[in-house]
Each structure stands twice: as structure tokens, then as C-alpha cells.
Write a structure and sequence with these properties.
Two copies of one chain form a homodimer. With 423 residues, chain A is an alpha/beta fold. Chain A has helices at 15-28, 42-47, 59-63, 84-96, 108-124, 150-170, 190-194, 218-232, 265-278, 290-293, 300-319, 345-348, 369-375, 414-418, and strands spanning 3-7, 36-39, 51-53, 101-106, 129-134, 177-183, 208-210, 234-240, 281-285, 324-332, 337-344, 387-388, 391-392. The two termini of chain A are 29 Å apart.
Chain lengths: 423, 423
């Protein structure tokens, strides 16, 4: 059986651990596996026939490297009925390299690619096993208790908030001080919620968490911030980038012409609002890409799960479980126990799992006890970071590229596909 | 000999390691040391007679905790000639607690406090030994080869940039992508320079570093960014928060009324400028307080130096080296060797050591080889992070407060001093 692995969507600190899992399991299954290839930049790389040989990779270094070493893309296949020629090309490439199984590692959109390609293969009578490997720091894939990538971003953000709390406690100021950390999450508050793990009591940061799932209530926020500023002298707020007002409009920086420094995004706007209302100092952190690539501080649980879904996907391929996702299932909270089960890709593709109301406290600005119980095990455990000269060692080569067997693609998506051949 | 230790200025990830060094050395010197007290929030805590007993502290937990557990302040003593009553109060408190030595842990401004208090004591015939313990992520104290706190912030930022590079390489896009990380440094580019350690060749991030020491050259930046975007498809830029145009005006976000998202600070402005000029995607990270409190990822060298300057300061106190700073001296680059020497506080107080021109590359937008040689050893080595439930364990108690022996202060700086009594 010949496998083709590919990475898609936004990156995480542990997606390469899933790649390492796929490859480790393939090596372990020796006799039953032929070649293992990887597409350069997801489905685009297949269309471009831009493929890597995965033979000689050092899996330990691979598993400690953030980003996706094979490259990613955000391209979703159009429906086959609309663009049959694109699917002709896809299956021509798969056939030219005798691919029996496609292992696609991505988020909600990528699972739709899995479902579409699986259905197209069946319609065409191409014997392909299509498996989804979940990945997203947003933790928003339905059918998965949690998603590889989330636990590490959660640990990084909760750790950062806990560390900043010690700094805030140290700094005195008659004016008071507001600190805002803006985290990723356009529609879902999973990462924002994770920062609540930093606090062990009501005095510790974050004192307030704002979720995209809750309409932004400005008077309630200001009332809470005022209480905190007067009681503690500081106030730390986690803001999900996608918070919205009750009318659905996003909260973001407004224009100013008074010469004041302007802030960007929702976090900057909240920092400005609170600091101008109460005339206090403001600080605004936006970790941005740092939160999804912090391989130096991954959750050992998350890393193990990323590896495990990769291994499971190779197993599912051998078992012919076409159209499924290797999903993590929770078996218990304390002690935390989990396993991996096949979930139907078509049933969960392109959905978006939001934070359940039971995970949000009654006031809408904190995480509930149920939410903490869910979150706590996902950030557990540390892993040593291979370093040289004090900085992490990553895989930074280019995996060898396979010779093309087909003439260059010249179809509908040529301009898009060409980006996959870059570098 | 009775010691009084205090923390001042902005916090670092390792200032408490210096506190632990002071206390460890005092415990080791047993017979010669009486009590060791700490002021609550720097010099303000002395004026407020708000003092801690340092007896039962666990030094290992202390040394792994970011922020300053005794609290900090940014108050500089006015000249004695202008406010003699403030100095009367200061020495009354020192005398009431039989303090023989003041160990003041801070940056440039704090060393001026050391020099002033030392001179006032001599004038008044109060037998006080005043010692400065250097601390600043800005690395800008004259007379010190490097400053405790800098190496850890440098390691954190260089690691972050190296990790983000793997993410950038992974993500394909026809439009291209610009990533900007804004780092602290209003007047000095030491932290910006440190991020250059992330890159091992010209393809790796950061591709451009903008320093406060160099006037911002917009055409040169855009020309360089265009080359990088066309060659690599992405471009990563480190921006020190304090970069200025040739006319001295700070670079920061301008007002927009076109409905576009606005960005804040210099980094946001650079991200906007490049992305609007070349119509590419933009991402903007501002680690803010995270970079100075990331105790989970300190430089082992920096941590050892922070501890060592604390130990040396206690030694200097016993030796009566009044008015000196325990400064780090470099003895060699490869292998890196250093020791600690006394430096005259008055001679280096309130100066600001900028990045030397020889550390900046000829084009003004990168770090030179000499700069890299200086920087490399400071980020070396990792330390295990004590964790519980996947998150760092910090000292979070309140050290016991000493009973006051004097009536409350009611002088000139009463309103300021009162903030030191908070919590």
C-alpha cells in the first residue's frame, strides 16, 4: 500500500508530530507499506504533482519542529460536478504514483476535502482510502473531544498569562494598570478559555475573559474592570480576536485624530476603552503566530495525541476505513484517559464547534468549573526541547522532491496550483 | 550586619534569582549577617516603612518566579538639597531597623538612587553600605557587559522568531506574507538585535531588523521587503518599539478612515506600510509583557548571572564597597567566560548604553558578525521549569510584613509613598 500524506490549513506546534506518527507507523508496518510520499503544500501539491519522498527523515527532529515541513495551503476543492477536470487531474497524479491512501492533516475545511475526494474516488471507481488527521489550535472540529495543536497553544497562552500576572502584581502605580492579551479565535473561544487555567484564585490573571460566543457587553466589562482596578490596582483581560457587539459588529480599534497612539484589533480596543475610561496605564500583548508555533513549550499530552492520530491514520488506511477521521475521544477527566476512534469525515466537515454554554461562567466573562475540568488535562506535561546554542533545533531542510511523471498542469486552477511549486 | 534588599524599575524573568542570590549568600555567611529585610515596592517601601522579613523563603521557588516578589516602583529620589525631609525619613526608617547595607536591584534610574542614597549617608555620617544590583531586559546599563534579565528576554524573542519562521515557510500564498514582531526598546535596540540569532542564513527570519539607533529609512525598507517577498514569498521583520524617522518623530500607526483594521505602535505601522504597498497578507505580533516575564524559557547563563550578581552584592556589602554596582565583565567569547566586578554607581547611573555601531550591519537593517559574537553566549542553556498540572509553579504568597516602629509618614511624597503600602 502506497501512502500520500499532506498538511493543510493554519499551522500548529505539533502538526509535524502527526506527520512523524504517520511515518513511524508506516515504518513499523514494514511489509504492508510500499512508499510513503508527502504532497508539497497540501492538495495543491497533488494537483501540481509536487511530491516529496519521506524516506530518510529523522522523526525525532521532525516531531519537535513547528510549522508544517511539507508546506500547507488553504485551498478547498470545488464540487466535482462544477470542476470535473480538476478531479481528473487529481486522480491522474494519484494514479501516476500508484497512491492507495491519502492522509490529509488539517482542520474543518480540510476534512471537507477528505469527504469530497473520498466520494469522488468512489464515483470514479478509483480504489483510494481517504483519511482525515485532525489539527487545529482552534479546537473547533466536531466529533473530536479535542484537536491536536490546541493543547499546546492553550498551554503557551495560559503559561504566558500566569507569568504576566507575577509582573502585574510587582508593579505599583497610583493610576492602576490594565493588561490585555488578544488570542486567536475568530468565531470560537477555546483559546481564550484556556488562559483561565492560569488563575488559581479570583486575584490572579486573567480576571476577565471575553469570548466570541458571548455578545460584548461594554457596561458590564467596565463595571467589572472598575471593581478589579480599585481592589487590586491592576486587571488582566483575555480577549478573543473575534469578539462582537450585540449587533454582530466586530470590536476593533476606532479611528482617533487626537494624536494618541492607536491600537489594533479587539484587544487593542478593549485596552484603549478601559484605560481611557479609568485613566489607567495600559499594556496590550498580541502573541499572534507565536501562540501556534511555540514548539519550545508544547503540552506533552497534546504532542502524544498529535503523534497518536498520525499513527492511527496509517492504521486506518491499512484497514480501509475510507472517509474517516482519526478522532480523539475522552474516556475520563481525572485521571485523564483518551483513545482514538474513527469518525465519519462527511458528518463533521466544515462544521464549527463553539464553546458550549456550560463552559462559560454565569456572568459571561469567565470559565466555569465544567470548562476548567475539560481544559486542565489538555495542557499537562512538558517535553524536553532539543537546543543548540540556547535556541531550538528544527528540521529546516527541504525533503527530496520526486520527479514528475505527468506533463505540467494547465487547467482551471493553474495560477493557484503554481504556488505549490514555489521553492 | 543587617541587610535591606529592594527591587525597582520594570520587571524581568530573573530578578527574583538575584533576590535568591542575595539571600543565599547571606545565609551562607551566617555569623556575619544579622537580619535580611526586603522593602515592599522599592524605595517607596522604605519611605513607607513597609518592610518584609525574608527569613523563611524557599529560594528555589523564588528563583523560578518572574516579576519581583517584593514589588517594584519607578520612584527616583529627588536631590537631597531639594527635599532633605525625604532623606530624613529614609534614614529614620533605616535606623529604626538598624540597617547597615542597602542592596538596590534595578536599572539605570535605580543606580542613581544608589548613588544618591550613598552620598546622603556619607554626608549625614550614617554608616550605610549602598550596593547596586543590575537588572534590565533593555541591556542598557553602562559599565556592565550585559545586564541580568536581558539574556532571557533575548532567548525568548529569538526562539519565538525562529519558531514563527517555520510557520511562515509552511504557509503558501500567491499574495505573499509579511510578519512583524514588535519588541521592547524605546531608545536601544539590544532586544531587537537579539532576534537576529534566530536566523542561520539569509532565508531565515528575521530578514530585517529595525533599531532605534538607526533613523527609519522607508524607501530602503520597502526595497528590501520587495526583494524578499519576491524571492521567498514571505518576509519577517523585527521592529523595536522606539524606531524614529530621520526628523526624530516616532514611527507609529496613522489614522485611517477607510474602515481598514488599524494597528498600534511601530510594529503595526510597519506591517501596514509593507502590506499596503505590496498588497500582501500581514501578521503583527506584540509580545509586550510576555517577553520580560517568560520564566518558563530563561537563558541558563542569564539566570546564573542574575543569581551571581545577587550573591556578589551581599559580599560587597560585607566588604563595605559602598556606592558600587555588581557588574558582569566578559573575559572571553568562545568559550564564554565572565566574572563580576565592582563598578562605581555614580559613574554609570542614568546613562543609557545604546547598541554600538559595530553591532549593526552596513545596511543598517541587520546585526553584524561582531554583534552576533556578543549576543550568542547570552542566550545559552536551558533550565527545567517547575510545573504543576502543566503550568509553571511560582512563588505567589506574600512575604511576612514587619511591624512598623515609626509613626506613619506624612511628608512631601505621602501620596506616592502610600501606593507602596497597598495590598
Amino acid at each position: 500500500m502506497n501512502l500520500l500524506y499532506a498538511q493543510a490549513g493554519g499551522m500548529t506546534a505539533v502538526i509535524n508530530a502527526s506527520a512523524a506518527g504517520v511515518l513511524a507507523e508506516a515504518r513499523a508496518r514494514g511489509a504492508r507499506i510500499g512508499t510513503v510520499l508527502a504532497a508539497h503544500r497540501g492538495i495543491l501539491g497533488i494537483l501540481a504533482e509536487s511530491l516529496h519522498d519521506c524516506g530518510g527523515l529523522d522523526l525525532d527532529t521532525l516531531a519537535a519542529t513547528p510549522g508544517g515541513i511539507f508546506g500547507s495551503c488553504r485551498f478547498n476543492m470545488p464540487p466535482e460536478a462544477e470542476q470535473p477536470a480538476l478531479y481528473d487531474r487529481l486522480f491522474a497524479v494519484l494514479d501516476a504514483h500508484r497512491i492507495d491512501a491519502l492522509l490529509y492533516n488539517g482542520g474543518n475545511g480540510s476534512l471537507e476535502v477528505v469527504a469530497k475526494v473520498s466520494a469522488a474516488a468512489r464515483r470514479r471507481g478509483y480504489p483510494l482510502v481517504c483519511i482525515g488527521i485532525p489539527k487545529t489550535i482552534d479546537n473547533d472540529i466536531e466529533g473530536c473531544d479535542c484537536c491536536p495543536g490546541y493543547g499546546s497553544a492553550a498551554k503557551y497562552l495560559a503559561t504566558s498569562m500566569r507569568e504576566v500576572c507575577r509582573d502585574l502584581v510587582s508593579m505599583t502605580s497610583r493610576k492602576g494598570r490594565i493588561f490585555v492579551m488578544e488570542v486567536m479565535g475568530r468565531n470560537v473561544g477555546w483559546l481564550a478559555a484556556a488562559t483561565a487555567l492560569a488563575a488559581r484564585d479570583a486575584d490572579e490573571a486573567p480576571h476577565i475573559v471575553l469570548f466570541p460566543e458571548m455578545p460584548f457587553d461594554e457596561p458590564a466589562l467596565l463595571a467589572r474592570a472598575e471593581t478589579l482596578l480599585s481592589r487590586l490596582g491592576y486587571c488582566a483581560i483575555t480577549v478573543a480576536e473575534g469578539i462582537r457587539r450585540a449587533d454582530g459588529s466586530p470590536v476593533m480599534a476606532r479611528s482617533h485624530s487626537d494624536g494618541h497612539m492607536r491600537f489594533g484589533g479587539a484587544g487593542g480596543e478593549i485596552a484603549r476603552l478601559v484605560s481611557e475610561t479609568f485613566d489607567c496605564h495600559r499594556h496590550y500583548a498580541a502573541p499572534d503566530y507565536l501562540q501556534r508555533s511555540a514548539a519550545h513549550w508544547v503540552s506533552a499530552v497534546d504532542h502524544a495525541q498529535a503523534l497518536a492520530v498520525g499513527r492511527a491514520a496509517t492504521g486506518y488506511a491499512l484497514e480501509g476505513r475510507d472517509g474517516t477521521v482519526a478522532a480523539i475521544r475522552r474516556l475520563g477527566d481525572e485521571p485523564y484517559r483518551w483513545d482514538i476512534v474513527p469518525v465519519d469525515a462527511a458528518a463533521v466537515a466544515n462544521l464549527e464547534r463553539r464553546l458550549p454554554p456550560s463552559f462559560i461562567a454565569a456572568d459571561g466573562m469567565q470559565v466555569s468549573e465544567a470548562g476548567r475540568r475539560y481544559l486542565a488535562p489538555l495542557v499537562a506535561g512538558e517535553r524536553p526541547t532539543p537546543c543548540s546554542g540556547g535556541l531550538p533545533v528544527h528540521y529546516r531542510g527541504k525533503p527530496p522532491r520526486l520527479a514528475q511523471r505527468l506533463p505540467p498542469y494547465t487547467g482551471w486552477a493553474e495560477e493557484i496550483v503554481r504556488t505549490a511549486q514555489r521553492d
